[in-house]
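Run log // design_07
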């Protein structure tokens, strides 16, 4: 059974690994100070070291929390009863309830598919399809309302990024064929 403790320790170790990779990668760019200021790896190295330290702290904290014998257990042991290594905490409960993985997948899979379609359909069309699908399947919204909201949302994104920020987002293959550059 995977408990919250397992997930917390795995998260801490993942953060540690990310910190180590970041710190190591920044060594290629220099981590010192030059005549012009900090080298390109100066700040990433420090962020990597901080992330490594914090990741280890999280892993150790959650790996060791509640692992000592409780005094009540010592009395139970003296009486010949069964002894738990630690008092039950929220860390020892199941991480996912029944059906939780399906709910997570119902959001993650469409998001991943939408992201994978961006090179071909572009951000706006892919996003609109994602919104329509999500509203219809998760929100139980009708198709007319879902399409209206998705088109309006993507139109606002288009105007915001393309005209106001002047940051063109990926348009894919389809939008240039429709004359939208």
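design_07 sequence
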């Amino acid at each position: 059974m995977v408990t919250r403790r397992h997930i917390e320790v795995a998260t801490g170790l993942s953060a540690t690994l990310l910190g180590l990779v970041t710190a190591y990668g920044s060594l290629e760019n220099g981590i010192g100070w030059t005549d012009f200021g900090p080298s390109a790896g100066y700040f990433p190295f420090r962020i990597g070291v901080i992330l490594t330290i914090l990741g280890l702290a999280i892993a150790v904290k959650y790996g060791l929390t509640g692992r000592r014998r409780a005094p009540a257990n010592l009395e139970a042991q003296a009486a010949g009863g069964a002894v738990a290594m630690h008092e039950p905490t929220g860390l020892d409960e199941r991480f996912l309830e029944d059906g939780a993985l399906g709910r997570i997948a119902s959001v993650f899979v469409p998001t991943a598919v939408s992201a994978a379609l961006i090179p071909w359909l572009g951000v706006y069309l892919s996003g609109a399809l994602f919104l329509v699908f999500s509203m219809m399947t998760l929100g139980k919204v009708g198709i007319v309302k879902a399409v209206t909201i998705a088109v309006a949302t993507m139109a606002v994104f288009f105007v915001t990024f393309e005209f106001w920020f002047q940051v063109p987002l990926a348009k894919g293959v389809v939008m240039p064929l429709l004359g939208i550059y």
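The radius of gyration is 25 Å.
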